[in-house]
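Interim report, section 4.2 (structural modelling).
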Amino acid sequence: DDFFATVAEKSEGAGLRGDYSKIDAQYVVAQDWDAYTPEQHALWRRLYQRQAKLIPGRACDVFIESLERLNIGDGIPNFEQSSEALFKATGWRLVAVPGLIPDYTFFEHLANRRFPVTVWLREPEEFDYIVEPDVFHDFFGHVPLLFNPIFADHMQEYGKGGLKAMKLDGLSMLARLYWYTVEFGLIQQPDGLRVYGAGILSSGGEIEYCLSSPEPRRIPFEVERVMRTLYKIDSYQETYFVIDSFQQLFNDTAPDFTPIYQKLKTLDPLPANLLLPGEVNLQAK
Ligand code: HBI
Ligand code: FE
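Predicted structure of the assembly:
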């Protein structure tokens, strides 16, 4: 189920959508902002406007505040311009990449407070669903939260943890942590359940579904439980994990994961649609 790991391996050299011919050792390319066409900027605006209608009352406060500061509704953003603002806020920089990059390179960027942003934009017919992350998923979905100092620190720790996990053969477990937090995480705010996961925030349908549907489970975040739970890559999630704060996410993922990897290797992973005895299924209000 480590979709990204598989795709990232396949994309090594071969190159999926992106042009991997002019890359450096860190898979960094020029964004070439002038090469985007008016049609592509128009598609970005359509994607942005679709999400802008959905996020009030659904995206977490940090996302909404940061998105306003970024002011990226008029067209595909210029990474260098936004990177300056981001660096001032939390010391992170954006690096342009051709698409999915190998795990090691990805983690190495995060460990050095560099966030890889895909340069290509989906085709119009991919408006509603895309398999690989494009510039809209990466920039709209992921960049706003990097303006929050605690989340920014967590992402750097995640990168360091990734480099370690590769040595401990813990990658598939760590990928679940990323999936159920950074990509599909929910957060309990005083005024209700909100979204912080990039995969949801950049999705047209899941942002409503994850908060309002009676279908999925919504379980309080617990590191071992998350690392043991399989996930779906091509449908809405069957389970969402809920944190109380970014501080909790940072604190709960700070310990060394070695003992968890060892323990979970002796257990079967859990299917994505399970509620264990005694677990609380938080209902959206
Ligand atoms: N590459 N560009 C890019 N973006 C990702 O989110 C990404 C990646 N390569 C590997 C990867 N994610 C995953 O394997 C890790 O999240 C586990
Ligand atoms: Fe992502």
